[in-house]
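sry for the spam today, last one i promise. struct tokens for design, 78 residues
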């Protein structure tokens, strides 16, 4: 995690640097499965996952995190 997550906004980044974070952001947003936003923290591109829908349950968040990890692994190896 790039910053504490006391509420519903989780900030994180891939260890690989800004380029892979941008590719991860683009790939996930284009997939239609989930939508992330971004910011810059300490001059580094940082991804943001906001969990704010009333009917969101833990399995939705777990599925989103699983998908983020899967795409990150694909991009990190390619």
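last one done:
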């Amino acid at each position: 995690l790039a910053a504490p997550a006391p509420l519903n906004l989780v900030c994180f980044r891939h260890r690989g640097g800004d380029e892979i974070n941008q590719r991860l952001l683009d790939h996930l947003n284009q997939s239609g499965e989930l939508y992330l936003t971004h910011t810059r923290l300490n001059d580094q591109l940082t991804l943001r996952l906001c969990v704010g829908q009333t009917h969101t349950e833990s399995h939705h968040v777990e599925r989103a995190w699983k998908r983020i990890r899967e795409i990150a692994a694909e991009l990190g190896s390619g």
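The radius of gyration is 12 Å. ok im logging off now
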